[in-house]
Write a structure and sequence with these properties.
Elements: E1 2-6, E2 9-14, E3 17-20, E4 30-36, E5 42-48, E6 54-59, E7 65-71, E8 74-77, E9 86-91, E10 97-101, E11 108-113, E12 116-120, E13 132-136, E14 142-147, E15 153-159, E16 162-165, E17 174-179, E18 185-190, E19 202-207, E20 212-214, E21 223-228, E22 234-239, E23 245-251, E24 254-259, E25 265-271, E26 277-283, E27 286-293, E28 296-299, E29 311-318, E30 324-330, E31 333-341, E32 349-354, E33 357-361, E34 371-375, E35 384-385, E36 392-393, E37 396-400, E38 409-413
Length: 415
């Protein structure tokens, strides 16, 4: 046997038999799963952990909004903490969820663990209005927003040490949107009100456990940080001079302008440990989910199967496997979705099992939608599908070289 490199892949020459692994043409990058609505009118996925568990909200048949947990292929209604609604905003790798509910008063910080909801006291235990938990890490530390007796709303850090006010940039408001495993928090904080416009401008911040740092902007008035990873990279959005909002990534003290998908408004909502992010962009008045990977901002809708029926509206969460959750439109309703990336090109393992037999095998996750196809020439425009062949079992195909005068090319292909 001899091996040589061919532009379409690796070709193994054995007698007159040629076996090649070729990349998929027009490969689909993500499959999309509908998380459902449990019979209600709509749903939205807000966060996903590294186990692929998703939390978010759905509107039930009675019109109430409840948090859900999607795990092992099914969605579960998490009910309420004693009131009429719950929202699930953040989930950690233990399956613990934080959000908001209305038990004992509107806008309570809630924590779901051990099969039930718990209430978390805010910065003012007597004032629960507009208190929310937005993100939770694996230690159970939570960040969000909470009211003060003065009427101000401040970002907080809740941990085993209690609850801590993270302050502002001199204004009356701040909001904690993302937290990493080091308890570093990002969000948005306001400056003092402008005496002329009477408006509060705001900037993204990083609280590193010691102080709240102003992260500036891309030259515009305001910015916001939504997600943070272990390297303190921050996914967010920033105004540029002129007022447009652009997707933005903060790394090592510098904002990178990632632009939009062609409109004037875009933002990143979440980031994983690889620096991949998801979010949204508004194009011609329509909101589109996006993904940032390989230093490129892409419309997630361009990376899913054609004719799927989906329009992915917004990406809210991404895990370290690159799986994305958010909200999309299908069948005239808005549903939570789970988008799972598919690698661009699998590897063919080629083993000689007998003097006249070769075993082709590949990872099982590539079947389906991957197909094993054959053609007499590598340049052929017509390839025969062997997926239904009796010799194809799982990700294995046993090939016998019966006719030495023939040659065949084989490829894994994803339509």
């Amino acid at each position: 046997m001899r091996t040589r490199i061919h532009p379409s892949g690796i070709i193994l020459t054995w007698s007159a038999l040629l076996v090649c692994g070729t990349p998929a043409v027009g490969a689909v990058r993500y499959t999309v799963t509908d998380l459902g609505t449990l019979g209600g009118s709509s749903s939205r996925g807000y966060a996903i952990n590294n186990l692929g568990q998703v939390t978010g909200i759905f509107v039930n048949p009675q019109g109430s909004t409840h948090a859900f947990l999607y795990s092992d292929g099914s969605m579960a209604d998490l009910g309420t903490a004693g009131g009429s609604y719950t929202y699930g905003y953040g989930i950690n790798n233990l399956g613990q969820i934080t959000g908001t509910g209305d038990a004992g008063g509107a806008g309570r910080i809630v924590l779901y663990r051990n099969g039930g909801w718990e209430l978390i006291s805010g910065l003012d235990p007597q004032l629960a209005y507009l208190s929310d938990g937005f993100a939770i890490n694996d230690e159970g530390a939570i960040t969000g927003q909470s009211n003060l007796p003065t009427g101000e709303i401040h970002a907080f850090l809740y941990s085993s040490s209690g609850i801590r006010d993270l302050g502002t940039l001199g204004g009356q408001f701040s909001y904690g949107y993302g937290i990493n495993q080091s308890n570093h928090v990002t969000g948005s904080a306001t400056f003092p009100r402008d005496p002329v416009t009477r408006l509060y401008s705001s900037h993204a911040f990083l609280h590193d456990g010691v102080s709240l740092q102003d992260l500036g902007s891309l030259g515009g008035d305001s910015s916001v940080g939504y997600g943070i990873n272990g390297a303190d990279q921050i996914a967010g959005s920033s105004q540029i001079p002129g007022g447009e909002w652009h997707a933005a990534l903060y790394t090592a003290g510098v904002w990178s302008d990632l632009g939009t998908l062609g409109g004037t408004n875009a933002g990143l909502r979440a980031i994983n440990e690889k620096g991949e992010a998801t979010g949204y962009s508004i194009v011609s008045g329509d909101r589109r989910a996006l993904v940032y990977a390989d230093n490129t901002l892409r419309d997630l809708n361009d990376l899913i199967p054609a004719g799927s029926g989906w329009v992915l509206i917004d990406g809210y969460g991404i895990n370290d496997q690159g799986q994305i959750t958010g909200q999309g439109s299908i069948g005239g309703q808005n549903h939570a979705f789970l988008a799972i990336p598919m690698p661009d090109q699998p590897s063919l393992l080629i083993q000689f099992v007998a003097a006249d037999q070769v075993l082709l095998s590949w990872p099982g996750e590539f079947s389906p939608p991957w197909k094993l196809e054959t053609a007499p020439e590598v340049t052929s425009t017509i390839w025969s599908d062997l997926t239904a062949s009796p010799s194809l079992v799982g990700g294995r195909y046993l090939l016998t070289n019966d006719i030495a005068a023939n040659k065949s090319f084989f490829r894994l292909y994803r339509p």
